[in-house]
Amino acid sequence: MDELIDYRCVDFQKLLILKAKSLHLSDQQCYVLLLIMTLDEIGVKPITPLQISKICSLSVQKLDDILMSLVDKHWISRQNGSLNLKPLQRLLLDQNEQSTDQDIDLVGIFEDAFGRSLSQREVQLINSLKCQGYDDEMIVDALNESVKSGVITFRYIEKILDNWARYGVTKRYAPTNVSTHQEVEQSIKDYKWWENHE
Questions:
Q1: What is the pTM of this model?
Q2: Domains, the chain, ranges and CATH?
Q3: Which of 5, 20, 47, 60 is most buried, by the most CB atoms less than 10 A from its CB?
Q4: What count of other Cβ atoms lies within 10 Å of the Cβ of residue 106?
Q5: pLDDT tens, N- to C-terminus, the chain (198 residues)
């Protein structure tokens, strides 16, 4: 089905207008999505909030709020500073990927790590990380990495995420098989070196 998206076999603008009400999109959200689709269709790259603000009458603050809500609902994503419509296109084609993410309380996790309440500026920094396309799990992994390093600052966390994005890391910690590790340790503990006859 991704071929339908890649080869532009479907008119997603018409499909969006027809399905906007059933997706519970507000008129402004629908309008912004149509603007993004139009910019994509005419070949504007990268599609950024600044590019959108040049062709619409919404204030920059209102546009940011709408884009943030669309990113939070996983209808669009941000990759390397550019907006990506594939999540919405899959949703319109009824291919919505089942999200395995539970809603993570990022502010609570950060407050626990920092040992204090976050300022409004720090909460905005967390939101900006989400707007850049990082999912909640990656942000938490970067926070854990900074805690291990003993450098708990937002700048350091952002640099960790930037490095991971540059090298294509999508999941920081692969699941490990703990039982195998314990079995190996047990076999080492049980090794009777004194019985080794050469």
A1: 0.46
A2: 2-92 (1.10.10.10), 106-166 (1.10.10)
A3: 47
A4: 18
A5: 455 555 556 778 888 888 888 888 888 998 989 888 888 888 888 888 888 888 888 888 888 888 888 888 878 887 766 777 788 877 777 744 444 345 577 888 888 888 888 888 888 888 888 777 777 888 888 899 888 888 888 889 888 888 887 776 655 554 444 444 555 566 666 766 667 665
